[in-house]
Amino acid sequence: VQKPPYPAQSGLWKKPTVINNVETLVDVPYIINKGWEAFASIGTEKSKGTKVFALVGKVNNTGLVEVPMGTTLRELIFEIGGGIPGGKRFKAVQTGGPSGGCIPEEYLDTPIDYDSLTSLGTIMGSGGMIVMDEDTCMVDVARFFLQFTADESCGKCTPCREGTRKMLGILDKIVEGNGTMEDIERLETLAVTIKDTALCGLGQTAPNPVLSTLRYFRDEYEAHVKEKRCPAKSCKALIAYRIDPAKCTGCTACARACPTGAITGEIKKVHTIDQEKCIKCGSCYEVCRFDAVEKLDAVEVTANT
């Protein structure tokens, strides 16, 4: 039995403790039957064995995938996952669950191991892997994951309890088109502070989605602030829908789909959208078979009306 003073880190009842999950236990029979040398031959020098990933998002083949450590992101997403649906461009992949970070296209050839992911500002975590395409707003992605960690905060330490909610408030301002350049700087300062001072792993990793998107997609943050524009045309407050008269056939599909009656027009005649009634739900955009409904920057539509 250990006696005081206890080590800085200790397990249950101050004794060495191993937490085994299903993925760990699955490896045990292989190691017993084949030997540790066989297991150690799989993977990389510092990351041995295989890893199971939950491959989801904007990728053709979704599901649980087991690959040797050291497999590249490109191999996993494009060879096993089958690439991005609809011929759209890959934008980023988020690894490690809500506390992970986002990795851009330039690092697709990175081998998947603990050290490599950490150097890119993310974590292996539970093996979540969310693929994003060109239609994904990275600012909104950061906000989405931060909402989860802010809700999950136990509230014990001030940096996590208060800091994550302050960050969430700033992100809300930015996606709504009300952010400033000072907000971006404040967001980054808060993220670094929380990472360095939070008591537990949740608080220390909660800023990862924000820090990684600021690191690789800072231009998107600045577009939201400086130009009041969402490059991915995803943030509702910064987009608008308009019907192209040259493409509209007057089929009425958009008008029938609109929940607020914002679209008017006679059968076989050009339809129009009342911007004051439009709630930007995107229903008209989804049902139009003639690509007549356009998703545009709100500032552009406002300038032309």
Model description:
With 305 residues, the protein is of the alpha+beta class. The protein has 3 domains: 42-133, Ubiquitin-like (UB roll) (Roll), CATH 3.10.20.600; 138-226, NADH-ubiquinone oxidoreductase 51kDa subunit, iron-sulphur binding domain (de novo design (two linked rop proteins), Up-down Bundle), CATH 1.20.1440; 236-303, Alpha-Beta Plaits (2-Layer Sandwich). Helices cover 40% and strands 14% of the residues. It has helices spanning 22-34, 36-40, 73-80, 114-119, 138-152, 158-175, 181-197, 201-205, 208-226, 253-257, 283-287, 298-303, and strands at residues 50-57, 63-68, 90-95, 102-104, 128-133, 239-243, 263-264, 272-273, 293-297. The protein has a 5-stranded mixed beta sheet. Strands 6-9 form a two-stranded antiparallel ribbon. A hairpin with a 5-residue loop joins strand 1 and strand 2 (63-68). Helix 5 crosses helix 9 (208-226) and helix 7 runs antiparallel to helix 9. The longest helix is centred in the last third of the chain and has 19 residues, at 208-226. It is globular. The N and C termini lie far apart (77 Å). The mean pLDDT is 93.
Provide the spatial order of strands within the biggest beta sheet.
2-1-5-3-4
Shape descriptor reads: globular
CATH architecture of the largest domain: Roll
In CATH's first tier, which class of the largest domain applies? Alpha Beta
Mean pLDDT across all amino acids: 93
CATH fold annotation of the largest domain? Ubiquitin-like (UB roll)
Structural class: alpha+beta
Low-confidence stretches: none
Helix content: 40-55%
Largest sheet: 5 strands, mixed
* CA-based gyration radius: 24 Å
Instruction: Give the N-terminus to C-terminus distance in angstroms.
Output: 77 Å
How many E strands? 9
Counted by DSSP, the helix tally is 12
Strand content: 5-15%
Q: In total, how many domains does the architecture comprise? A: 3
Order of helices and strands: HHEEHEEHEHHHHHEHEEHEH
